[in-house]
Design a protein that fits this description.
With about 475 residues, this protein is of the alpha+beta class.
Length: about 475
């Protein structure tokens, strides 16, 4: 007498991520056969880099965010370590001192009511989103991983005819690795939806590189980036990186980030060869990105999607320009730029200040940093690009580091797992300046290993050693 195959003890369907009840043999939502699901390994695998998964003992990830051991973020290493100037050419002011615990605290807003000029970068939905398809980066090896559908049984074993092998030019399903993918993006054999092109993106441009990933909880990637290289009028090289994070509670956040990154990148790459100062070029690039996002609000696609929410497309932006001896950063929102020197005995620094509720409370002296970031409103953004932006205030700053290093441009999907400059420096590989694509992959893997609760995007720009006699501005 044949016996029913024993199913693996899983809490969610590996196909649609719907919760399962003990003893279920088929998923109640999609009908997936749970008897063919392999037993889950004891620990989540580390994503392969260049096809090699390092042993756990070889990976020493830093403690993320709550590094003081009491649930509070680590102190931020401010950009004052590097001399620089703001948009008006004045020296950057020192960071505001933290208010004492006895400082007055702003009155709490009514529950559910955001403060004026504040936007929450999350929709009013559960934090976990169903995955629409197995992650393509986990299909490089034949071994099964959690969340990946098993390879179908041979036709002789299942009693069914095997699907015809797809032609070489046709797309093959990432789940069953056998069926054709139709024009709608679904496998004709197993029915799985295929990953979108933006689920994982990588790009190298000269000495710089960027990687963007959907993460492990979101159903789509709402981040975008633009990287490129050009030359100044005197022939000196210049590197450009723009990273944008779509506001999830807005309409078409993925389109907003893509439009902003493309507009800003094109503006910078067009202005620098004409002799525009990099800091002015960065300011103009942010304005161009804002106009590109604003234009989305008038498109028919926005009108169809936004009702009844009436949220215009929106995103944040952060960028960096590296030339010989000069580093320029610009931003609107809560994405960040970090400076990590090649000599790790010297301190790293965070070069941007968030446009967020917590940052405003600290800057105003109404809360100290621990109190502000412990509040549930901490990550509500107060600056963004979009037609409904409260007020557009592009931030730019220029620096002249006196030593080589690497510039990290990233969304909060990464810095949530390495918030302080010291934590970010520990996560950046020592050879990141020589191998920026590898370094960007490692940083994205760091965020995914930490939980991958958000889309993750990071660009790395090596900063060259200053020429002899160059000093700090």
């Amino acid at each position: 007498m044949s016996q029913m195959p024993q199913q693996a003890a899983v809490s969610k369907c590996p196909s649609c991520e719907e919760p399962l009840e003990p003893g279920d043999r088929f998923c109640g939502a999609c009908g997936y056969d749970l008897s063919v699901v392999p037993a889950r390994p004891e620990d989540s695998p580390t994503l392969a880099i260049h096809g090699v998964v390092p042993a756990p003992d070889d990976v020493d990830w830093p403690v993320a965010r709550d590094s003081d051991g009491h649930g509070h973020p680590a102190p931020v290493h401010a950009a004052a370590e590097l001399p620089g100037t703001d948009s008006g050419g004045s020296p950057l002011p020192p960071p505001p001192p933290a208010a004492p615990p006895s400082a007055p605290v702003a009155p709490a807003a009514p529950a559910g009511a955001p403060a004026p000029g504040v936007r929450f970068d999350r929709p009013g939905e559960p934090e976990e989103y169903p995955l629409q398809a197995p992650d393509p980066r986990l299909t490089a090896e034949p071994a099964l991983v959690p969340g990946q559908a098993p390879t179908p049984e041979p036709a002789a074993a299942s009693g069914q005819s095997a699907p015809a092998a797809p032609d070489a030019a046709e797309k093959v399903c990432v789940a069953c690795r056998a069926g054709r993918v139709d024009d709608d993006g679904y496998c004709e054999n197993c029915g799985h939806a295929q990953p979108r092109e933006r689920d994982h993106m990588e790009q190298e441009s000269g000495p710089i590189a960027a990687v963007s990933d959907r993460g492990l909880r979101h159903h789509r990637n709402e981040d975008a980036f633009s990287v490129g290289c050009t030359a100044l009028p005197d022939g000196a090289p210049a590197s450009v990186a723009i990273v944008c994070d779509g506001v999830s509670s807005a309409t078409r956040p993925d389109d907003a980030s893509l439009a902003a990154s493309r507009a800003a990148g094109a503006t910078l790459l067009g202005a620098l060869p004409r002799g525009t100062h990099p800091q002015q070029a960065m300011h103009d690039a942010i304005l161009a990105a804002s106009q590109a996002v604003n234009a989305l609000a008038d498109e028919p696609a926005t009108a169809r999607e936004q009702a009844p929410h009436q949220n215009a497309p929106a995103c944040t932006l952060v960028g960096a320009v590296v030339t010989a001896g000069l580093l320029v950063v610009g931003w609107v929102g809560d994405s960040r730029v970090y400076w990590v020197p090649a000599d790790r005995t010297t301190p790293p620094a965070r070069l941007t200040e968030d446009d967020s509720w917590a940052a405003q409370m600290v800057a105003a002296g109404l809360m100290n940093e621990a109190e502000a970031y412990a509040d549930e409103r901490a990550h509500a953004i107060t600056g963004w690009l979009g037609a409904d932006a409260y007020e557009l205030e592009p931030h730019t700053a220029s620096f002249k580091p006196d030593r080589p290093g690497v510039v990290v441009v990233c969304t909060d999907g990464l810095w949530n797992y390495a918030e302080s400059a010291e934590e970010m420096a520990e996560a950046v590989p020592l050879d990141a300046a020589a191998r920026p694509l590898h370094g960007a992959r490692v940083l994205v893997g760091h965020a995914l290993d930490g939980g991958g609760h958000d889309n993750v995007t990071v660009a790395l720009l090596p900063f060259p050693a200053p020429s002899q006699g160059a000093g700090s501005a």
